[in-house]
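A sample follows:
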Amino acid sequence: RRPVIAGRGEGGSGCRCRLGTFSWGNRWSLCDVPRFTGTDMDGLLRKFYGAYYYASNMALVLLGGYGLDDLQNMAVRHFSDVPPRPKCEPPHDLGGDPVPPAVPVSDSDSETDSSPSSSNFLPPFCPARSLRRLYRIVPVDNRHVITIIYPLPPQYPHWRSKPTNVLAHLLGHEAAGSILAHLKARGLATGCSVEGDDATSSTHSLFTVSFTLSENGVLRWTECVDAVYLYLGMLRSHFETEGTLPLRIYEELREVSEMSYKFAEETHAGDFVTDLVETIVPKRIAPPQDRLLDAETRMFEWRPDLVKDILENFLSPSNSRVDLMSTVFGRSNDYEEIENDDKKKDNNRDVDDDDDDDDDNSKNMTNNETVLCCSCDDPSAPPPPTAFDLMKAMNVWRDNAGYAPSAMPFTPSQDGAPPPQMEPTFGTKFWCHAIHPDTLVRWEGMREPATRRSKEATEAVERAGLALPPKNNFVPTEFGLRALPPDDDDHPLVSSSLKLCIAVGKKKTWFAATVQRYNSIKNQILLFFEDEDEKWYTLDFNSVEAKSMKLNNGYEGTLNGGKVKFRIVALAMNNAGPIRKYEDDTDDHVEDGTAFPPVPPATPASRLPKKIVNNKVRRAIDHITFRFFLIKTAPNTIYLFLDCDSSISRS
């Protein structure tokens, strides 16, 4: 949302900037506003399309699992209708105020001021209305963040040296002597982020320094900005005394960029082609074809002069704006509740008063005053204001001198605090204040090098203990694979599951085990058994022979010179962990209830008990059985014996 607020200066009117004219759109900006202003949005979009959508002004990247001829045929089939030249002349200005000539920034606050410029630098912010300002922004969720934004010239011509990456590394490091370490020691901040945005823009680039603050840091936000300019002054002192920065800083960044490019994670195909096409889009200075893939990641040369140029001419208080986003100012929901209460009160008014208010609103819109937008679904509702002159001019909350109260806490509930301004597209609430000239002068004195620094600024630098980042001894330089130790070498059986036939007494039993390690010197494997016992066994084949053998599940071999037989139950795959498989698959199915145990085959007739055919032996057995039951039971008991062979019964 920051680019949309970028064009909202004090009071929301006045000069406009390119980041505030067209960046995001919604129903209000694309439907309601054109309807009120009488703008033909469809005609403007078609004119824009005809002016900029032509073959020589585009770049195309195709990625797919096809041959080059097939990809070329696809490109011809789908893009042959793109016109080779524009259908109409492009507009001279895509929105915003005309860019003034490149002139140095003065200390005044007049309408003709311009930020530092280079040959192709088109300021993204309106210098007179957006720079040297403090924006207090109401967040949606709970956060406390301060961001210092510096507009820079376009950085894509410096793709080989990337000077903004060097400055981001220096300002954003978190070791001893860093800005964050200084703010943490004072309980003002908990994190930082420094980066350069819009690296592919042909008109500008943004350099941002952000800190995650504590609630105490929100109230003492000027001390956080003080630390940034003290560090910039320390960097300028290095250039003044040493003539340059230490070469090790570039070497560390180059090594890290090489590592990031070499071991980059695979990105989504859509993201990859999008990043690539933005790199090769037609522009004045672009990387050559052999550097399209690594131009945005790797660093190729050390240019301290470009770092010094940005440091001297652009990272200054007069070329910056400060965004302070904090829930100390409330949340968006808090203001929505207030607006809803106001609407309820308005609904209780008389009809005549409502008609008068509608007439007043129509008059106010012609005077560029703030009103609520309407929906195009309700033709009877009053039309909305213009997109650029929505905000009503108001007397913002200031100190006695008419500037932002930087030395005192700010809360919307204080007496004299006005209602916040509202960015019309997203409805973000914010207050805009001019930073006091005395504060700008103090910051300018802090960023001076040591030879031109005031005594007060010199003492502040010494108290802060700011310094360059120390040498990073943990940047890897060797990426080759080292040989495994002999007692834990590579082998196809490592991590596999085996079953061993081991003699237990006079009986041999199969035991399950997992191969833990392989000793290449002794040609032994360490087996881990189910009862957590470990034992070394000597292989009857070495690792070289094993790689040429067709090892698979069910393979049988021998260990310890043929004394122990083994069978492979589950062979481990490459880069897989150990497999501990102690049972067969059928056992798992039975335990899970997904299958019944196998039914044993029927016993053959030869294994059944034979019939007794000797009658004498049978009678003897019957007599013994009768006497046994007769003794054990009471008298007068009747026993019945059935002879199935002769079907004779007796009692």
